[in-house]
Write a structure and sequence with these properties.
The protein has 461 residues and is mainly beta. 6% of the residues lie in helices and 42% in strands.
Length: 461
């Protein structure tokens, strides 16, 4: 198979320059991308995140941000992963419906990729949207130290945007000299998760990103952090929500504030001011306070007249569940256990959290826990979810797309997603067609919660 090696520069292109439509991080033209695959090498390396010194990170292809991988909807993505880490790893393709054997969960869907080994992921991409990739083992360390990257599946037909801006949000736990602080604090793992102290967008602190004046912009925001929840707002600047977690919304609507927890994504449409030099801050809103994440700045462009309107994206081919005949399953997410010593990978030797009174029991080549549910291929299901804890949990389901139906705490206009953010004591309902056979992980995407019990899997057969 012919492959391209993406250079560090392709990842760094995320940081500041105007990003032309459909060309970010591509070494060649669209025809070359269609015929070729990607090469990713996971290895230790330095990342310059603070002024005090280099950070001993874990990187894809030697840089951060990692290469942006792109493929067109309905086509195959081929990625050869080579592991140059001192520990085993995998690649999980977050949010996308793919063959179970390519899902990247060690021992459940594939053997771990051991140091010095390679594995080729090869799968069809049926849905357009904003997705990402990361390991699914040694997760506290490997994600916390930088092994995260963006996957874009472009719509089958180009969309009418002048510029695309990808914003990968990630915090780091760093000392002033750039070295890592402990990635996990057991007391915080038992609560909302251990937060970082250096906030970055595409590896930079509060960057300013240039966009064409008067242009129609597509902003792709991704929460690549282990723990932090963002409440995204543009405050006094009008933006339109066009997709949630990679899935187009049927009727785009104006953004007020959008909660985006670990693993979640948001696509916004925005008409830039026609004057050059105008700055548009993007905020994390905490109550009455607005903390700036980054900002856009308009620069002169060749756009003759300002763009108008943001249209809906084309829907993905996700089957609609038959709610009248759907089978109901109930899941309760609860606290459990007590504080205990932290292991080398940041996990604990006992469960802090449970799903239906079961904590994740671990998995190995010779040990596979029982599934949380066994589903029938092609059948419709409703999951009734209850977060019986005082902390929020982004509940993520691999391999399937569900519709968020209702909540007892907020008004819901049904929308499709792969993750639902359950607030404390919230009850909600989701529904889907079990259209993808396999064993699919089902877990909280706060990484410490996942590693300390809040994880399981379902089977579709």
């Amino acid at each position: 198979m012919k492959r391209r090696t993406l250079l560090q520069a392709s990842g760094l292109a995320l940081g500041g320059a105007v990003m032309p439509k459909l060309t970010l991080a591509m070494a060649g033209g669209r025809d070359q991308l269609d015929r070729a695959g990607y090469e990713l090498v996971a290895a230790p390396g330095p990342a310059q995140l603070v002024d005090g010194g280099a950070t001993p990170a874990l990187l894809y292809n030697g840089g951060f941000p990692a290469p942006v991988l792109r493929v067109r909807q309905g086509e195959r993505l081929r990625v050869r992963l080579t592991n140059q880490l001192p520990q085993a790893t995998t690649l999980h393709w977050h949010g996308i419906r793919i063959d179970n054997a390519m899902d990247g969960v060690p021992h459940l869907t594939q053997p771990p990729v051991l140091p010095g080994e390679s594995f080729t992921y090869d799968f069809l991409c049926p849905d357009a949207g904003t997705y990402w990739y990361h390991p699914h083992m040694h997760s506290v360390e490997q994600l916390g130290k930088g092994l995260v990257g963006v996957l874009i599946v472009d719509e089958a037909e180009p969309q009418p945007f002048d510029t695309e801006v990808i914003l990968g949000l990630k915090d780091w736990r760093l000392n002033r000299d750039g070295s890592f602080m402990p990635l996990s604090d057991p007391r915080q793992a038992f609560r909302a998760g251990t937060l970082g102290n250096v906030a970055t967008v595409n590896g930079r602190q509060r960057p300013t990103i240039e966009v064409p004046a008067g242009g129609r912009l597509r902003l792709r925001l991704l929460n690549l952090d282990n723990s932090r929840e963002f409440n995204l707002s543009l405050r006094d600047n009008e933006a339109t929500v066009i997709a949630i977690d990679g899935n187009p919304v049927a009727a785009p609507y104006s953004l007020d504030v959008h909660a985006m927890a670990s693993g979640m994504r948001l696509d916004l449409g925005l008409i830039a001011p026609s004057e050059a030099g105008v700055e548009i801050p993007i905020y994390d809103r905490k109550g009455r306070f607005h903390q700036e994440i980054c900002r856009l700045r308009t620069v002169p462009s060749k756009i003759d007249s300002p763009r108008r309107g943001i249209a809906a994206l084309p829907a993905n081919p996700v089957p609609a569940p038959d709610l009248a005949r759907a089978e109901v399953h109930r899941f309760v997410f609860e606290w459990a256990g007590a504080l205990s010593p932290t292991l080398a990978d940041g996990s604990s030797d006992r469960a802090f959290w449970t799903i239906n009174r079961r904590g994740w029991e671990g998995i190995s080549a010779g040990q596979l826990p029982a599934p949380l549910a066994e589903l029938e291929l092609g059948k419709s299901y409703i999951f009734e979810l209850h977060n019986a804890t005082p902390h929020s949990h982004p509940i993520h389901l691999h391999g399937l797309i569900f519709t968020v139906l209702e909540s007892d705490q907020r008004e819901i206009t049904p929308f499709q997603s792969d993750t639902i953010l359950l607030q404390k004591n919230e009850r909600a309902k989701i529904a889907f067609v079990a259209d993808n056979p396999g064993r699919w992980m089902y877990h909280c995407h706060v990484i410490e919660h996942m590693k300390t019990g809040l994880m399981g899997y379902i089977t579709v057969s």
